[in-house]
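This part of the workshop introduces the protein records we will be handling. Getting from the letters to the tokens is the skill we practise here. The record below serves as our worked example for the rest of this section.

…
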Amino acid sequence: MPPPLTIFDSPDLREIGQWLYDRFCQQLQAGWLISHDGAVIIDSLSERLRQRAEQLVTKFSQTRPNFISIATADPSEFIAQLMAGTRLGLPIFLGNPRWGAVEWAQVASLTLQVEPQHQHLIMIPTGGSSGVIKFVTHTWATLSASVWGFQEFYDLAAINTICTLPLYHVSGLMQLCRSLLTDGKLVIVDFRELCAESNSQIDRIEIEDYFISLVPTQLTKLLDVDTQWLGKVQTILLGGAPPSSELLTRARTANLPIALTYGMTETASQIASLKPAEFLAGYHSCGLVLPHAKIETILEIDRDRSLDLELDAGALRIQAKSLMLGYFPDLTLPTYFEPDDIGTFDEQGYLTILGRNSNKIISGGENIFPIEVINAIMATGLVQDVWVVGVPDRYWGQAVTAIYVAKDLSVSAATLATAITGKVSNYKIPKHWILVAKIPRNKLGKILDREVRSLVSHHLGVNSG
């Protein structure tokens, strides 16, 4: 059975670190970690990982660094460093091994501010897409609260998961935590190999008992490669970026057990989820709020001017047991968190995210949320990818602008504008169309804001903000 939550209520944080480290060693012996080719790591590889963790515990005990920074593409080395740092209570900063000099200079500036009270904290990066890296501060208590909320919502004992996402990202890290803390299994798979080899890497495990977490771009690629094994997993958690209506239609047609999710680094991953049966029945919201969280809407916006749909929408306010301690080095414990998201609840309590308040376009006095226009354009089937922004305009205030990757060079701006006429209000049809070979996104499929602004400015000769 999973361990009691009360261990994380202990005032002795050293006790928690030792307990987690001991559990890690025990779980290794029980076959917790499974290699990418389906071979259970219980013998030499398991012992090698345990020895590496022991080696790091000895090293850190002797040198006693102010913090450790984990930035490795090797999952085994990541886990060894994480557990060694946890055992000793060292401040842990997770990093992207692909960061460049600018990003690491930002990290160095932040780590200079480490102080004794930062022991036992885990700093998870966020904000890289805006060009400024921030670290969201968590503890094993907040991470475990996310695990228990997930476990209760899905009514599970053990949580088995297939991880294709980087462990330094909250969506990858939480898969490690869920499996470790619930006596589950963790399968770490390189997504590129998974696409290249179809189902050959996972056909040795009983995937019917496994969750897999994907971002929309990954799901799109897997649908192009093979849907047979993908339809057999217990649940496909889909998050990280808004999925297009076209992608959701493809997933339903393939009868995939999709669970649309809503969450963020600040809440230690998902705090709302739509279960697969509901998705396959035609629902497309983010589902119900998980038991460890509370979400409410505030600052209601004018529905008549914001959406064609008859929805009451507002900014979100979140409370959760998994809520961060703050952005490092500020550890002012927030009682609630207000993201930039605009959402609405239906009568059954299902949450729908309409977009980001900061991305809202005000054109001719009308409020426009880009996701509406994006979904309409994707539904035409004429583009591979699209993003919508507002650019300054002397007459309109902001002009709706679509950046798109066409499926065929014959697809013109006029063709697209005609295709969505009648699908959205006329004032939502883009006034500018920019054809590109690729839309700037990070590895998880999230838009790189700075690069998009630069691209728009280059093509239109305006400052896109």
Observations:
- The first strand starts at residue 33 and ends at 34.
